[in-house]
Each structure stands twice: as C-alpha cells, then as structure tokens.
Design goal:
Elements: E1 4-10, E2 14-21, E3 28-36, E4 43-47, E5 53-58, H1 66-81, E6 86-93, E7 104-105, H2 108-115, H3 125-138, E8 143-148, H4 158-161, H5 167-170, H6 181-194, H7 196-199, E9 202-208, E10 212-218, E11 221-225, H8 246-256, H9 260-269, H10 272-277, H11 283-288, H12 292-316, E12 321-325, H13 326-331, H14 333-341, H15 352-356, E13 370-373, H16 378-392
Parallel strand pairs: 1-6, 6-8, 9-12, 12-13
Antiparallel strand pairs: 1-2, 2-3, 3-4, 4-5, 7-8, 9-10, 10-11
Helix pairs in contact: 1-3, 6-16, 12-14
Amino acid sequence: MPKAILTLNAGSSSIKFSLYELGSGVQRLISHGQIEGIGEAPRFLARAPDGAVLESYAWPHHAASHEEFLQRLLAWVTSHLGDEALVAVGHRVVHGGALFHRPVRIDQDVLGALEKLVPLAPLHQPHNLAAIKALSRLRPGLLQVACFDTAFHRDMPAVAERLPLPRLYTDAGMRRYGFHGISYEYLAGRLRVLAPTLAKGRVIMAHLGNGASLCAMWDGQSIDTTMSFTALDGLMMGTRCGSIDAGVVLYLQEAYGLDAAAVGHMLYHDCGLLGVSGVSNDMRALLESEDPRAREAIDLFVYRIVKEIGALTSALGGLDALVFSAGIGEHAASIRSEICDALTWLGVECDEVANDRHETLISSTRSAVRVLVVATDEEAMIAEHTAQLMRDISPPPTVNPSFA
C-alpha cells in the first residue's frame, strides 16, 4: 500500500482536504473533498481525481466538533488506503508572523507561537489551529506540518515591508507580511512551465476569490503585494473592506460608539461585496442580480483591482504579464474582461473569444501585456512542502507528541 500525505485547509464553515500518494517527485492526487456546512448542516464528501463521488455522509446534528469531523475523515482514509498508509498531514496556516518563513514540523512550541498570531488573522488562524489540535488528539504519532501563507513574501524588499509607524511598533514585528503565498508560490511554478521567459519578467498575479489580493513578482519572487499586516488590507473582497482610511475606524468608534471588537467584526464580515451590494458576497449572485447596488459593488471591486495593478506596475517598473487565478479570477470571464478594458492605457488588450472560452492565454496578439488564466492549487503546494520536509528530517520521526 502506498504511503500518503493528507492536506488540510480548515476554515470556519468548511475543511477542505486532499490525499496524495507520496512519491520521490511530484505527489500524485488520490482523492479530494471537503467537510462543508460546518455550523449548519455538516456533510462529508470525498471525490476521486476525476470528480466521481467516493463517499458522502451527512451528520445528524450540526454541533459536531473539529475532532468529530476529522475522526470521520481519518476513518475514511484508513478504509480507503489501509492502516499504515497515512504518514503526514500538511496544513495551510494563514499567518506565520516574523518567525516562520518556511514549512515547519508542528510541536508544542510552534503551536504556542502560532496561537499568538490569532489576532492578526482572526478569520482563519483559529480554525487552522483547531484542526491541528484535533488531529494531535486523534493521532498523536502522526507528523503534522504547517505551511504558511505569509512565507512567500518573506523576502520582499525592506521598503515594501515597512509600515510608517513609530519604530517602537515596527521593532515589535508590525510590518507588511502579505498573504495567499501558498497560491502565489504554486502559480509562480506553473508560469515557469507555461511561459518560462515571462516567468523571469515583471508579473502581477491576481488571486481573486472571496479573499482577494495581488502580488507583484520579478523572476518569480514577491516584490510587493496588496495584503499587509493582516488579511484585511488591499483589495475589496467578499466581506472584507480592503484598504480603508484609518480615520474611518476612529470615527466609527467615536461617532457610533463601536468598540474594537464590533469594528473588527464589521470590517471582516460585513463589508466588501456584501456590504456595498446588500445582496451577497458571491460574485456569481451579483452578476446575476438586477439590483443596481450589485452593479455598484462589482464596479468598485474592478476599480480597486485596476487601481492597485497600476500601483504594483509602478513598483515593478513596467508589466510583462497579468495572471488571473482563484474562484473569480478563473471563472468570471466578465470580470476579467472589465479589468482588461480598464487597463488599455497599459497596453492590455483582451481576446474576448479566448476569454469567454476560459483559455489559458486570453490577451490578443496586439496586447503589450500577456494576460493568462492559470488555476491555482494550494493543496498540491502543501503536499510538496510536506514531502520535502519529510525528506529533510533524518531520521524520520516515529512519534509526534500530542500538543492538544
């Protein structure tokens, strides 16, 4: 029976997973799926690589814990592969702070350090860590690896990292970290395969989903990015405001009597596409809506992206390629078209036929900037990092103590 690596991306309403056969090179996908509807009507769904359903299960109650969810997943992995097959679990961990800039084996000290970063990523970090703790109780001998969304941006130029705050705070670690790094690392690798010459040039990657950001790359390295100290900065997102005047926060507290917790909840959960439209945070629903507020939200979403592309192009000193990815970037042809149309000043010209067909290259032959659509795969990147860390550990660990 082949050895296998499980990858987990644990969120507030779902736990996405993928199962890979451990190999000497690229890991082979065995299955993938998710535990969805957490807090409402939780359901386990596992699929084969071709999308065929392998197993489906609905919990009879909504208050199941991460431990119960993962117990079901581990039982399915065991029945699917055998008792000894699963050798490691790789986790997406959103914030690695200043300490973690490469994948690490998780132990008690690592977990303690990651707990301190929860206030910097309150939408994601608690759920990432809940899955880690649950697994440590269920399988205390199983190797667990943390892969960080912040790591890819760790080598940004110092001027791009710095916040204009008193040094008391910057010396304490307050800086621009950037996020979506696992996705950007995967996309940089894919671009090296698809277009090696472009990959060495000036590229802006657009990870556009419910969470959205841009990354400026030169020769595959992060030069700057729109997210910052937290994943709240930058582009307008599904429910997050993105960049906002700090004075607005002060005004909300002073004029409306909102405390820090109330302001934080609003900025993370009630803003963005949802807040502007009053309809939905789902771009598909907004594109189908006849409510004029939905159109206003879409227009603002596109405007903010185009504006930030201009800023990052300036940081790069020009632009050779623009790459769309993630849920909106990969599937919303009309949004890609609107962004490209607003960038004609930069020499961007979209091939609308190729765009509507969701082809990889969607720029016209006359376009001064190549525009591509590339599917991201954070799970594959996590599996590769987990496999590499296992190879680096000598001798391989036999016991990973419980750190629940």
